Amino acid sequence: ADAIIVNTCAIREHAEKRALSIIGRYKHNKARNPDTVIGVCGCMSAQEHRSEHLKRSYHYVDFAFGTGSLHRLPEFIYGALTKAKRSFVLDTERPQIAEGLPVVRECAHRAWVSIMYGCNNFCTYCIVPYVRGRERSRMPEDIIKEVRELVESGCKDITLLGQNVNSYGKELDGGYDIAYLLREISKIEGDFWIHLMTSHPKDASDALIEALSCKSVANHFHLPLQSGSSPILKRMNRHYDIDRYLEIIDKLKRQNPSITLTTDIIVGFPGESDEDFEKTLEVIRRVEYDSVYSFVFSPRKGTPAYSMEDQIPEEIKKERFERLTELQNEISRKKNEAMVGKTVRVLVDGKSKNNDKIYTSRTEGNKIVHFEADKDYTGQFINLKIIRTDTFALYGEI
Ligand code: 5AD
Ligand code: SF4
């Protein structure tokens, strides 16, 4: 390649370690061909200490910049090609939204559309507000135009992205909110699903819950819990307690009993006692999520939780993580089993990697369904009858 650009994540230490090791590999590329342009972008490089480290210790890296400077990529490449300068750019607090950047989409039938950038919440464990800056929403007309064009081009599943899509539009003039956006998008003609990723419980308004029943909005809601213990939620600066969280869950289930519910959970937050952890398991049992994305707490330099007392030893974090996974697997297995005999609508993704005759697809709630077919239905909605299941997937027939 003439140019190698490593896009990085900073959410947990593991992601940063992997990024640094990948960047390290490219030293040889530069040695073999000094004209190769090498850059680093994304959240890891938006942190001052990482940017400095890349500049000082990775001499073959020509530039590094955060997500808010993506529109300046041509300038950085030009600087590298003309050997004029190495650029190490930290984003400003409130970067502008650059509309109209060219997009290459790998998949024709699923797409991700950012509706807002940044985060104002400062959960005490989280690096995002520091690397992404404050909340900025795109104008509704720009989003609606992009979604309409995607639907017209045959896209069937569109995920609206933001760190907290529930606060969409708050800083725009015009009184826009996420419920308005969902209603407007639902007016677009066509057969497609809209997913949201991700929602903060403190902002999950009744208006949003009502808007989930709009025509194109998928029957799925991802509501990050983080912890089942109210005192821990307080230390996480989450601005809700367990009663409030469960109230939202009950409302969602009442409105649509067949809704798929998923969540994010952090185990081993500083000060998490056995009792706090048991409370998390209790919520999991009570809600019966379809799936849980669980993470071991990873201290992020610059966040309040990094220097909190009572850090939990690694073995205890690991043990709690395993117990949680085991419980959730049991629930997922049970929920999947209950699907046997039912007919579900799926969006077909294509042939399975390991078997030419088997196709993979996903339900509206993002459950994977494998099935056999002689004809290629990739990118289309079809109905499958579920014939068997396991913990992680369903198996169906046309
Ligand atoms: N350690 C572990 N998990 C984290 N997350 C965010 N920050 C951390 C951290 N420091 C998790 C949260 C969030 C998801 C995207 O990543 O659960 O919802
Ligand atoms: Fe991080 Fe999400 Fe909290 Fe924002 S709302 S600080 S992105 S966990």
Task: Note down, in words, how this protein is organized.
The chain has helices spanning 13-25, 27-32, 48-57, 73-81, 128-132, 140-152, 178-186, 206-211, 230-235, 242-255, 274-287, 314-337; strands spanning 3-8, 37-42, 63-65, 87-89, 110-114, 116-117, 136-137, 157-161, 193-197, 220-222, 260-267, 291-296, 343-351, 358-363, 368-372, 381-389, 394-397. It is built from 12 helices and 17 strands. A 5-stranded mixed β-barrel has the order 13-14-15-17-16. The protein has a 4-stranded parallel sheet with strand order 1-2-3-4. A 3-stranded parallel sheet has the order 5-8-9, with helices on one face. Helix 11 packs parallel to helix 12. It is 32% helix and 22% strand. The chain has 398 residues and is α/β, with parallel strands linked by helices. The structure holds 5'-deoxyadenosine and iron/sulfur cluster.
Question: Which characteristics define this entry?
Answer:
five-stranded mixed barrel, binds iron/sulfur cluster, single chain, alpha/beta, about 400 residues, binds 5'-deoxyadenosine, four-stranded parallel sheet, 12 helices, globular
